[in-house]
Amino acid sequence: MGKCGVCGKGGEDVSLLFARHRDLGGVWLCSDCWRNEYSKIVPSGSSGSCCG
Predict the structure, then answer these.
(1) CA dist., res. 30 & res. 22, Å (int)
(2) Among residues 52, 18, 13, 50, which one has the least CA distance to residue 37?
(3) How distant, in Å, are the alpha carbons of 14, 21, 52 from that of 40?
(4) Alpha-carbon dihedral of residues 10, 38, 43, 24, nearest 10 degrees?
(5) pLDDT by residue for the chain (52 residues), tens digit each?
(6) What is the dihedral of CA 17, 6, 36, 15, to 10 degrees?
C-alpha cells in the first residue's frame, strides 16, 4: 500500500483515494486529507468550471 501524498499516512489500515489535486497533480490522499483538501481537488471529467 502507498502513502498519503499530503500527510504521509500509510499502511494496511489507511484507505487512500486518488485525486487530481490543483497544486499537487495526481496524488493519493487519506480520508482526512481528502476532506481538508477537497476545495483543491479538480472534478473528474470537468474543466474545473461549474454549471448551474
Answers:
(1) 17
(2) 18
(3) 21, 6, 20
(4) -60
(5) 689 999 999 988 999 999 999 999 999 999 999 999 989 988 876 555 554 4
(6) 30
